[in-house]
Amino acid sequence: MKSLLINPVLNKEIKLRFRSFKSFLGVFFYLFALGGIAIGFILMNTVFSYNASAIFRPEQSRTMFMVLSFVQMALILFMTPGLTSGVISGERERQTLNILLTTPQSSTSIILSKLISSIAYLLLMMVASLPLYSIVFLFGGVSPALLGATFGLYFITMLAIGSIGILFSTLIRKTIIATIITYGITLFFTAGTAILTMIGMQFVNFQNLNQTSVMPYITSMFNPFIILLASFEEGVTNEINSMSGIEFSLITGFVLSFLLISFICLFISIKKLRPKMKAKKELPEGE
Amino acid sequence: MIETINLTKKYGSFTALNSLNLKIEKGTVFGFVGHNGAGKSTTFSILATLLAPTSGAAYVNGYDVIKEPKKVRNHIGYMPDFFGVYDQFKTIEYLDFYGASYGIPQSERQALIPQLLELVNLSHKQDDYVDLLSRGMKQRLCLARSLIHDPEVLILDEPASGLDPRARIEMREILKELKNMGKTIIISSHILPELAEMCDEIGVITNGELVASGSVASIQQQLQANKVINVKLATDIEKAILLFEDDPKVSTITKHERYENTFTFAFTGSELEQIALLKKALDQELPILSFSQEESNLEDVFLEITKGVDFS
């Protein structure tokens, strides 16, 4: 375990990632976007509202927390594919992968190091955004447990989308194609499953009330935004549960399915990183 | 020690490597010569555990490349024909990273890296970023990297390609030093004379097949059944040509374009037959000024070997 945590690839990745000016710019614009939205939200509800003397109330603070969380989730979904879909194919393109693969480092350690270093950078952004959330706490309305749960959902999302990015980076030679595919899948997990959930709900509504359908449950289970909403509003979970007739917690379903996706993607990446050394021994008598 | 047995690699219907049988003893420097795309890099990639062969077997220091790739990796230093370096990585960090990748403890790495930089003459560049080094320096650094775990076998794929003459000489000097250290080295090039100087043995590969192998001298002999002889006369060239044409071992007589009364011919006979032929010409009182065998160099040998091979 120690060798997995302190290992050369991870060391190098973190060193190179945090050394580059690009990473600094990334954090800067991330906080700039998030901070702009937070300040804009407060301004809209106080200075620019009908009631200019209005104070910022706890219910509004809660709404602001939700807005911030959604934006943060969107930013994570936007950045994770870009950070991970080039980690292997990028090394292949710049012709450093061959050398790395002739070292005795295990494929597992290479793949996991790549994932951990990408996630470390995303975590840095998340931690850097915490002071913005303190605005929310200043006005109240949100429990620290909810904040913790939200950050937990971010982490699971990063893990799954990051693993998908690494999988395509390993399987596909060109970074650009791997990136496009990863973004495509991310889009499906957000917009795609949202549309399918709506269609599913309409379908249930049209039929008689005793009918249930598993479709809205399945599709919303894969949608990080719906899950985020469900973690704020219990009503969402209850409605989907009753429509589908599945009592199992939607959020737990999401966590388990995303962890499973991560595991499968990482497993395939590890298996496919190096060529499968399986050659038939040629028999002496003939070809 | 390196051994391959009927090593074959096919890409669909294209055969990149066809039943390659090699045996390279410990401490030998083996030169692998062939035109671009002949199968050198394919062989090296298989030996470096980067590519699975279609059939056949390969062993490095007795370890099976297919069954025990991990053990093989610990015994080889591999330098690919094309390689890149990481951006924003210093020379010393570059070597430290690969040292750590081979599981060398940090204290040992700190002692080892200056020695390696010394060996490849890069001590003064230890704090420079690797992506800013010149090509020759990068090649040398890559060589130092391949030595970091003190492997017994070095697999060097065109280590001198793209280098200027000075950098080539430097690279050659380093390789000589490694040879003196007793390493088994397999090195490829498409330039035969360059290899001949430092190799004990040479293998020539064309279109995935080993067409000749052995010591440099034996290859030269093996492949030079055809001697080219230059004849210069004072006059009477036509008469001489008629006489030489009669000999069954003489072929392709060509008059020299620039020098008068001079021609060359190919001769397949022995030395005695060559003497007899000259004597016969002198008996006919041909005014022969010179009768000399053309010294063919390794480049010609290489061209001779690969003659008639479809390079497309």
Automatic annotation (TrEMBL), chain A:
UniProt keyword annotations, A-Z: Membrane, Transmembrane, Transmembrane helix
Residue ranges crossing the lipid bilayer per the database entry: 21-44, 64-88, 119-139, 145-168, 180-204, 248-270
Entries under Pfam families matching the protein: ABC2_membrane_2
GO molecular function, one term: ABC-type transporter activity
One CC-aspect GO term: plasma membrane
PANTHER family tied to this protein: ABC TRANSPORTER PERMEASE, HYPOTHETICAL MEMBRANE PROTEIN, CONSERVED
Protein name: ABC transporter permease
TrEMBL record, chain B:
InterPro entries reported in the protein's UniProt record: AAA+_ATPase (IPR003593), ABC_transporter-like_ATP-bd (IPR003439), DrrA1/2-like_C (IPR025302), P-loop_NTPase (IPR027417)
Keywords associated with the record: ATP-binding, Nucleotide-binding, Transport
Molecular-function annotations in GO: ATP binding; ATP hydrolysis activity
CDD domains membership: ABC_DR_subfamily_A (cd03230)
Domain ABC transporter: 2-232
Pfam name, any one: ABC_tran
Membership in a protein family: Belongs to the ABC transporter superfamily.
Stated name of the protein: ABC transporter
